[in-house]
């Protein structure tokens, strides 16, 4: 909490409809965000029970700088991932962090299972368990509308909710946060579903007095200037992340058609530039961010003959254009947006959905599965058939869709096709086929995300590829990012928030940390996550990379399987050694 | 000439709420943007446009007229100034303002009234807000 030396945790027990609040001094050294959320997960998880057991916890937390400094916008969720069976972590922007802050909490821990579909209303004055039976089965847009109309507080509240995919426990279902943002990866939607929790609304008017206005506002303005008047963040406001499409395509790094290619003949037709010219209608921001990187694209759809059109607006960014565009061979921006809309309404993770469908397309062609399984003519470039399939995933209409609803790992166990299943560490691949650091980074990263350690950035900027350097980078960057995400700073602002800036911001609100404290924090978080994973049975011994990634050229040409395996081995040895030391020091 | 706040470029608004955070901090010494005198919201869900509720700087302020203790006094250029010591927190001004610009700060037991200070204008990254010179 601002101006105190404890973390204020709200515990919610859905089974008994009870809540408890604890002021935890001991958690203060984990600062907030990922630090606190990982620690609370470690404390509350039941390592011998399955991920979707009702006793498993779901944690959401914010940090001390949340909302009150520019671009400190994220809320962090941790849970046991039903997708990988191990550590689950996801980040979302929007208004959620502001709403939790204004309600007066630093973290929320939810356990148990409601008897009937429920939505939670959390404010500084109340915690209510409300009937959501009529909302069960509705898509995310409709649920959002109903809660908006039923509950007070426009402008101040955050509404988060799941769609059918989450209700049906699809292991890559997401939670939609305030229309345009998501807790996307690793199946947090299913965790909501398993608790009969359809939605949450949070808001508050808690008094949050400022202790030293002069110091605080001076620092605030300095950072604000850096954000808005230097080019540290310009790209996010202009074309946004989709500017990557052209860049990656030019260097053989844009995964295309299930990575049969790393360069797409229609890349220009679905580039950030084309989206901006043809579809972009506005940009919006997460609360507290003067950048406005959320790009909203519009397309129109003829729903009847006689010029009967509807227009639909959805947010797009690089990962979506990759997973639901190039990877599926989709050739126009309108079609990409149409697929995004379907994924959005169903409440699925866009990356995993695209990668699973790309695999299914190839598996169908190779005869591993049949048209009876897919109920759609999956074929690269065929938008309408993919749209059918997306709905089938969310509804889990037959055995095939049931299986792929548990992720690609399960699908491969049953149907084969492991060689071309784009999985890194059990999670579907993100949109960069840049080379070794990306491949290693996504595999070993705490949550198997490209954002854990940004290996893709190393591949793109390195002059040469030395094994030691790659390992160093991946470990160092992940620890550094653990600091940023414990503060809930949006990673797009990482150039703005270097260590001196972070310390300045903390000090200006009375948190007198030092550089050494930050280093200690990064280490603690890194190894706490690893400890959680180990307790859940995680191991990279005998890990096998999919064949496909070695067959398609990257920025550095075709990757050498031996080299990547060697890197993995080096990484494991090095981290194990460090882990031992850390455990002994604890 | 005195200046008053205008929110006449809200089509450009990003919904970043920086204006509110600034007002709450600078004028009300609080991190909670519920304390802000300017209120940005959507017209209904994020898919709709943003709108700002601001004091429109009435020349004949209804809020001041209903105040039983004269805690609100006319400000040059329009709008009002609050004399905190005189306020008894009766909330009459809240309902008298038909644009809905006044709301109560229940922690401090006074209404939150816009001072037309321009802090929000300086911090808006998209120039949605401006200060307009007006005659007294
Ligand atoms: S709340 Fe205060 S300022 Fe408003 S009308 Fe009552 S006394 Fe006057
Ligand atoms: S607060 Fe409302 S009634 Fe009073 S001057 Fe401003 S707009 Fe007019
Ligand atoms: S600061 Fe400007 S862009 Fe941001 S919410 Fe306020 S008016 Fe909109």
UniProtKB/TrEMBL annotation, chain A:
What InterPro entries does the record point to? Ald_Fedxn_OxRdtase_dom2 (IPR013984), Ald_Fedxn_OxRdtase_dom3 (IPR013985), Ald_Fedxn_OxRdtase_N (IPR013983), Ald_Fedxn_OxRdtase_N_sf (IPR036503), OxRdtase_Ald_Fedxn_C (IPR001203), Tungsten_al_ferr_oxy-like_C (IPR036021), W-dependent_AOR (IPR051919)
Q: Tell me its cofactors.
A: tungstopterin; [4Fe-4S] cluster
Q: Which domain of life is it from?
A: Bacteria
**Protein keywords:** 4Fe-4S, Iron, Iron-sulfur, Metal-binding, Oxidoreductase
| Ranges for domain Aldehyde ferredoxin oxidoreductase N-terminal | 6-206
Q: Which residues form the signal peptide?
A: none
- Spell out the coiled coil positions from the record: none
Family named by the database record: Belongs to the AOR/FOR family.
Name it.
Aldehyde:ferredoxin oxidoreductase
Upper lineage ranks? Bacteria, Bacillati, Bacillota, Bacillota incertae sedis, Caldicellulosiruptorales
UniProtKB/TrEMBL annotation, chain B:
Q: What are the boundaries of the signal sequence?
A: none
Entry-linked PROSITE patterns: 4FE4S_FER_1 (PS00198), 4FE4S_FER_2 (PS51379)
What's this protein's name? 4Fe-4S binding protein
Is DNA damage one of the keywords? Answer: no
- Pfam families hit by this protein: Fer4
User: Taxonomically, what lineage is the organism?
Assistant: Bacteria, Bacillati, Bacillota, Bacillota incertae sedis, Caldicellulosiruptorales
- Kindly give the InterPro entries that the UniProt entry links to this protein: 4Fe4S_Fe-S-bd (IPR017896), 4Fe4S_Fe_S_CS (IPR017900), RnfB_subfamily (IPR050294)
> What organism is listed for this UniProt entry?
Caldicellulosiruptor naganoensis
Q: Where is the 4Fe-4S ferredoxin-type domain?
A: 46-77, 78-97, 100-134
Swiss-Prot/TrEMBL keywords:
4Fe-4S, Iron, Iron-sulfur, Metal-binding
């Amino acid at each position: 909490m601002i101006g105190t030396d404890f973390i204020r945790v709200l515990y919610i027990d859905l089974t008994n409809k009870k809540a408890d609040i604890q002021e935890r001094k001991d958690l203060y050294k984990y600062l907030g965000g990922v630090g606190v959320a990982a620690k609370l997960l470690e404390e509350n998880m039941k390592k011998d029970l399955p991920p979707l057991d009702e006793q498993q916890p779901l944690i959401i937390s914010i940090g001390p700088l949340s909302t009150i400094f520019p671009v400190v916008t994220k809320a962090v969720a941790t849970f046991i991932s039903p997708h990988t069976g191990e550590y689950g972590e996801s980040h979302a922007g929007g208004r959620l962090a502001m709403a939790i802050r204004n309600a007066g909490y630093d973290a929320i821990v939810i356990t148990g299972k409601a008897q009937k579909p429920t939505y939670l209303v959390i404010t500084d004055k109340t915690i209510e368990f409300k009937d959501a039976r009529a909302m069960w089965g509705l898509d995310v847009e409709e649920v959002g509308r109903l809660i908006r109309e039923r509950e007070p507080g426009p402008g101040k509240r955050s509404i988060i909710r799941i769609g059918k995919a989450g209700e049906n426990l699809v292991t890559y279902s997401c939670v939609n946060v305030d229309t345009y943002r998501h807790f996307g990866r690793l199946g947090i939607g299913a965790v909501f579903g398993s608790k009969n929790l359809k939605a949450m609304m949070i808001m508050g008017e808690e008094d949050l007095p400022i202790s030293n206005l002069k110091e605080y506002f001076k620092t605030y303005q300095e950072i604000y200037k850096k954000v808005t008047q230097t080019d540290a963040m310009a790209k996010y406001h202009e074309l946004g992340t989709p500017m990557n499409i052209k860049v990656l395509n030019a260097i053989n790094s844009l995964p295309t058609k299930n990575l049969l290619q790393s360069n797409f003949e229609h890349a220009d037709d679905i580039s950030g530039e084309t989206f901006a010219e043809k579809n972009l209608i506005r940009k919006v921001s997460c609360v507290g961010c003067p950048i406005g990187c959320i790009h909203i694209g519009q397309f129109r759809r003829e729903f009847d003959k006689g010029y009967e059109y509807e227009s639909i607006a959805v947010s797009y960014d690089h990962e979506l254009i990759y997973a639901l565009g190039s990877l599926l061979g989709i050739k126009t921006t309108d079609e990409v947006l149409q697929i995004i809309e379907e994924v959005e309404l169903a409440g699925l993770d866009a990356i995993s959905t695209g990668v699973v469908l790309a695999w299914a397309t190839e598996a169908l062609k190779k005869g591993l599965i049949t048209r009876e399984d897919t109920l759609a003519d999956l074929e690269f470039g065929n938008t309408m058939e993919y749209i059918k399939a997306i709905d089938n995933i969310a509804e889990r209409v037959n055995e095939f869709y049931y299986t792929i609803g548990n992720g690609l790992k399960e699908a491969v166990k049953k149907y084969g096709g492991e060689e071309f299943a784009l999985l890194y560490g059990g999670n579907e691949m993100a949109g960069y086929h840049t080379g070794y650091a990306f491949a290693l980074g996504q595999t070993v990263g705490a949550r198997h995300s490209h954002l854990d350690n940004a290996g893709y950035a190393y591949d793109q900027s390195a002059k040469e590829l030395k094994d030691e350097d790659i390992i160093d980078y991946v470990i160092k960057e992940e620890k550094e990012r653990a600091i940023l995400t414990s503060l809930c700073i949006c990673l797009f602002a990482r150039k703005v928030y270097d260590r001196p800036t972070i310390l300045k911001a903390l000090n200006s609100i009375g948190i007198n940390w030092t550089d050494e404290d930050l280093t200690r924090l990064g280490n603690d978080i890194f190894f706490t996550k690893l400890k959680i994973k180990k307790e859940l049975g995680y191991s990279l011994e005998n890990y096998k990379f999919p064949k496909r990634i070695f067959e398609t050229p990257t920025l550095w040409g075709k990757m050498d399987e031996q080299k990547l395996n060697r890197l993995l081995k080096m990484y494991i040895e090095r981290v194990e050694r460090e882990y031992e030391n850390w455990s002994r020091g604890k | 000439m005195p200046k008053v706040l205008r929110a006449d470029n809200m089509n450009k608004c990003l919904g970043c709420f920086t204006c509110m955070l600034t007002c709450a901090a600078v004028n009300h010494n609080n991190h909670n943007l519920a304390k802000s005198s300017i209120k940005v919201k959507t017209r209904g869900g994020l898919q709709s446009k943003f709108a700002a509720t601001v004091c429109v700087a009435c020349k004949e302020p209804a809020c001041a007229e209903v105040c039983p203790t004269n805690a609100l006094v006319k400000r040059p250029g329009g709008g009002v100034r609050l004399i905190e010591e005189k306020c008894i927190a009766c909330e009459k001004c809240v309902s008298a303002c038909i644009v809905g610009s006044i709301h109560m700060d229940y922690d401090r037991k006074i209404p939150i009234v816009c001072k037309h200070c321009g802090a929000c204008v300086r911090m808006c990254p998209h120039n949605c807000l401006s200060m307009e010179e007006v005659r007294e």
